[in-house]
Amino acid sequence: MKKLLTLLFLGLSCSAFAQTVKVSGTVTGSDGTSLPGVYVMEENTSNAASTDLDGFYSLDVRVGSNLLFSYIGYRTQIIPVTGAAVINVILEEDSALLEEVVVVGYGTQKKSVVTASIAKVSSDDLKNVAPVRIDNALKGLTSGVTVTSSSGQPGASARVRVRGVGTINNSEPLYIVDGMPIGGGIDYLNPSDIQSIEVLKDAASGAVYGARAANGVILVTTKSGQKGATRVTYDFSYGFQNPWKEYDVLNATEYALLMNEGYLAQGKAPVYSDPYALGEGTDWQKEIFNYNAPQVNHQLTISGASDKVNYYISAGYYSQEGIVGGNFNRSNYERLTIRTNTTYTLMDQSAKRNFLHKFTMGINAAYSRNTSFGITTNSEFGGPLGSALGMAPTLNVYADDPDALLSEHPAAVKDPRNGKPFSIVEGSIYNEMVNP
């Protein structure tokens, strides 16, 4: 009889150690938002579940074990099971983990896994560089991406190539702004409105976009409001530009001496009777350069977020004078941008069982006006730089005798309205024009 009782107590003891309890609850973020897809696992076992769209979970676990809650971008929590039937969990965001996650198509991956195929530029990187155009922001910040400026003109477009030229026709990458494909480039965007830029450089990372990703994909995410009270921010920056190099050229005296030597070598009379009286003359490089050319940037933003509303409104103005001709309003660039990114949730998040809290409505719109005045670029002799190097330093910048401009050219065309000639030579390919 004693042996039978001992065996009975041993059986009850084993049953007590194997006791399980059904644990359920909800998982939310620090702002009270339900977190769907949170991984809930009994530690050191394969017993696991995940939360539904309302952040709800249910799992049978052993009393005395630990529950592990993990979610991308949030700190993992381990909570002991003491026998309570309901365990609600609030996960805290982990900014360090968020920096290691990049967007790939419709999903995310850890950056450590895809370093070779994805390059990321954050808003802090853009703030340090302060680019005029968003495509220039990729220059020097992303490996495998080549950005070539079309010219030095203020506001000039840039050519972006991801891992070289992929086709003999159009080699432009596919631009995706806030999930929407954009054609014709992204020069309308204000760099101050960008949260992050990700470049998908290989077939694996851009596979979700199909054949359009053959030349790479550039994902642009714009800024949105942050949880808290309304924030009004005004940013102002001022800079200036100067030519980094000027060519050494002859002054008027040196030029006149060489010209006289050339005429004498040809058996002709010298054209300059007193070269030393000409002095330094005119340095045409200094005449066309706009030293300390200013560039000014203004940015005003209003942003904020609550349980139901998330809003970001910005207005920006940027102006830049060109180093050549900018002081004469011949080479300038201006950009005016207005952007709004607003979302509204129909029902409060506290109404977790009301399906309307799943629906959001919003507007993501932008207005951009770019105005530019340009001069001839990428021309060896036809542009102002080539012309300045070829102009004689003996010539004055301004005419000493204004009446000389009205002297009649032998082949001039006369205006019948006032009889004054305009020095336009007809019948010649190389027409000549002076100010009448």
Structure description:
A five-stranded mixed beta sheet has the order 10-15-16-13-14. It is mostly beta strands. It is 12% helix and 35% strand. It is built from six helices and 23 strands.
What brief labels describe this structure?
436 residues; mainly beta; Immunoglobulin-like; Ferric Hydroxamate Uptake Protein, Chain A, domain 1; 4 domains; five-stranded mixed β-sheet; five-stranded antiparallel β-sheet; disordered N terminus; disordered C terminus
Distance between the termini: 132 Å
Structural class: mainly beta
Helix content: 10-25%
The profile of the biggest β sheet is:
5 strands, mixed
In short:
The chain has helices at 2-17, 95-99, 123-129, 252-265, 284-288, 384-390; strands at residues 20-29, 39-42, 48-50, 56-62, 66-70, 77-80, 89-91, 101-104, 107-110, 118-122, 145-149, 158-162, 174-177, 180-182, 194-200, 217-222, 228-241, 293-305, 309-321, 332-345, 360-373, 413-414, 421-422.
Topology:
Layout: H1 2-17, E1 20-29, E2 39-42, E3 48-50, E4 56-62, E5 66-70, E6 77-80, E7 89-91, H2 95-99, E8 101-104, E9 107-110, E10 118-122, H3 123-129, E11 145-149, E12 158-162, E13 174-177, E14 180-182, E15 194-200, E16 217-222, E17 228-241, H4 252-265, H5 284-288, E18 293-305, E19 309-321, E20 332-345, E21 360-373, H6 384-390, E22 413-414, E23 421-422
Parallel strand pairs: 1-7, 13-16
Antiparallel strand pairs: 1-4, 2-3, 2-5, 5-6, 8-9, 10-15, 11-12, 13-14, 15-16, 17-18, 18-19, 19-20, 20-21, 22-23
